[in-house]
């Protein structure tokens, strides 16, 4: 039988939302970071009393504590109890934003699990896994970085070199920002994910945001703005970006919100790169150094 959840000094919690929720649901709060359960109101501070009953004692009620309604003949005045410590208060009025976020998180987890149809070989679409992994490689950082460096070394025009130099800057900025956010947020990858990814950094054990989604959005926006392509090819580039993002959820690597935020971040990163566009005029050292190689 599962033992009751206990507070810091070992007593059972008086009211805990987690006791009725399932693991993995946002109300469960099992990640250590999320403290979603209600806190015991008096449990650890009423000596010798049952915590639940103690909550009902008139002397502890907010009315008596504030002394707003002194009742005639209600007996001798009682000493005001000490204020409750922060961790012993029950939050009965969670904000609208809190409820909305928890609902979004619940929908996210549920939908991501439903869409993770290639997470393992035995999944319903498990036979599509090799194709999904090919898409994974197409949006991986290493081929993009090595490909850009190779093209840079072969480029013989100033215009080409300028574009490629900025693509390299964009890819490095992307790696840096994604690693930073992953390290700060530390959201675990979905439980159904198999950690069999090709070359990862240590922060890649975390899932928010999806690095593949940021790169796909960044690179596709970059390509659409700097390469002259026929319309069908432009459509293909946008499709590729969406499929790479969607395949992350199908593979079970990410939740939907990781990918959605990844797209937003990648799109924004392009605006940053465009704003700080490197050229032989504002970064002559970079271009001269590269030319000497
Ligand atoms: C070659 C140059 C100039 C620098 C190398 C910089 C560097 C540290 C590259 C590492 C590339 C790398 C291993 C990227 C990881 C890509 C990855 C697996 C991201 C995770 O994606 P996600 O969608 O699962 O979040």
Please tell me about this protein's structure.
This protein has 293 residues and is mostly helical. The protein folds into two domains: 13-85, no CATH class; 109-292, no CATH class. It has helices at residues 51-56, 62-66, 96-115, 129-138, 141-154, 158-185, 211-226, 231-250, 256-275, 284-292. It is globular and about 80 Å long. It starts with 50 loop residues before the first helix and ends with a helix. Bound molecules: ligand L4R3MLFD. Residues 140-142, 145, 175, 197, 199-201, 204, 210-212, 248, 253 line the site of the ligand CC(C)=CCC/C(C)=C/CC/C(C)=C/CC/C(C)=C/COP(=O)(O)O. The site of the ligand CC(C)=CCC/C(C)=C/CC/C(C)=C/CC/C(C)=C/COP(=O)(O)O has 15 residues, from helix 5 and helix 7.
């Amino acid at each position: 039988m599962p033992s009751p959840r206990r507070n810091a000094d070992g007593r059972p919690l008086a009211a805990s939302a987690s006791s009725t929720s399932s693991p993995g649901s946002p109300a469960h709060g099992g990640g250590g970071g999320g403290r979603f359960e209600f806190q015991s109101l008096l449990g650890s501070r009423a000596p010798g009393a049952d915590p639940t009953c103690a909550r009902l004692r008139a002397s502890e009620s907010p009315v008596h504590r504030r002394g707003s309604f002194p009742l005639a003949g209600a007996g001798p005045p009682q000493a005001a109890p000490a204020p409750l410590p922060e961790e012993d208060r029950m939050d009965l009025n969670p904000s609208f934003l809190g409820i909305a976020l928890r609902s979004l998180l619940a929908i996210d987890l549920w939908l991501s699990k439903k869409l993770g149809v290639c997470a393992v070989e035995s999944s319903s679409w498990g036979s599509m896994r090799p194709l999904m992994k090919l898409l994974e490689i197409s949006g991986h950082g290493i081929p993009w970085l090595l490909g850009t460096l190779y093209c840079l070394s072969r480029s013989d025009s100033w215009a080409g070199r300028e574009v490629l130099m900025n693509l390299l800057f964009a890819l490095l900025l992307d790696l840096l920002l994604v690693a930073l956010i992953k390290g700060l947020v530390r959201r675990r990858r979905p439980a159904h994910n198999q950690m069999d990814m090709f070359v990862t950094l240590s922060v890649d054990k975390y899932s928010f945001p999806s690095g593949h989604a940021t790169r796909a959005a960044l690179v596709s926006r970059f390509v659409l703005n700097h390469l002259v392509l026929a319309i069908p090819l432009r459509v293909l580039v946008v499709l590729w970006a969406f499929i790479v993002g969607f395949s992350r959820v199908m593979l079970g690597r990410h939740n939907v919100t990781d990918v959605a935020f990844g797209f937003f971040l990648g799109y924004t990163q392009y605006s940053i790169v465009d704003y700080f566009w490197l050229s032989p005029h504002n970064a002559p050292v970079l271009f001269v150094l590269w030319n000497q190689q």
